[in-house]
Amino acid sequence: MNAKKADKIATGVLYTIAGIIIAILASLILYILVRGVPHISIDFLTKPSKSFQAGGGIGIQLFNSFYLLIITMLISIPISLGAGIYLSEYARKNWFTNVVRTSIEVLSSLPSVVVGLFGFLVFVIQAGLGFSIISGALALTFFNLPLLTRNVEESLKTVHFTQREAGLALGLSRWETVTRVVIPEALPGILTGVILGAGRIFGEAAALIYTAGQSAPALDFSNWNPLSITSPLNIFRQAETLAVHIWKVNSEGNMPDGAQVSAGASAVLIIAVLLFNFLARFIGKRLHKKITSA
């Protein structure tokens, strides 16, 4: 067998494997959407859920998912940005940075249920925060921080060293070069990673079962006092998210239309995660074009 024939066979095998994987993933997504989209409506997206009656929605769970996502990103983005800048621009190659990078790799590969149990022991019990939004956000910060940090570091490393030298040659300090030259150039990659991380958080369930809780108390959307128990902005209340709600409905749901609620909620979750991915690609491409054309 000559080299060209072997190359064609190997290429064909790889294309076949890739096509099978894509077909499996596409069929799963289509199956969830076909079953769930017919059950999605304005009432379904806005009404609160019901435990023993039919006709409930996912309004509170959907709000909880977005609110917890915002709190988590407000905590994790500044920390990951600082850590990524340090590792990319300032850290020297020694045992300390090797330990930091190894720790990031280990944390990024931890199962989410382990992060949830860690959050339960540390934040829910030891810190006395109980099952709450802040406990879930802190646990998800540990879950998302390694990936965001690595994304920031890799995005900064893609900026060519000549741009750093140009900034220093113009009389800018090292910090000014990083903030005015390097970060703007790496911004498309950083934002793409942040949005993809947000999609990962939005669909997380295992870590939140042990930290944010499994109940969705009634909320008064006319009361925006963050210290009030019924306020949507209260970070110390329990908050069942959309992913946790899907798990709960399928495991212990008592509503007569549980299958329809689960299918509709799953479709909403899939659509939201797909939107996060498409948004990341769109923003990344637009920013990259804007920077290269400037």
UniProtKB/TrEMBL annotation:
The chain crosses the membrane at residues 12-34, 66-88, 109-142, 261-280. It is a multi-pass membrane protein. One of its GO terms (cellular component) is plasma membrane. Residues 62-280 form the ABC transmembrane type-1 domain. Keywords: Cell membrane, Membrane, Transmembrane, Transmembrane helix, Transport. GO terms for biological process: phosphate ion transmembrane transport. The keyword Transmembrane applies. The keyword Magnesium does not apply. InterPro entries: MetI-like, MetI-like_sf, Phosphate_PstA. GO terms for molecular function: phosphate transmembrane transporter activity. It is found in: Cell membrane. Belongs to the binding-protein-dependent transport system permease family. CysTW subfamily. This is Phosphate transport system permease protein PstA. It comes from Vagococcus silagei.
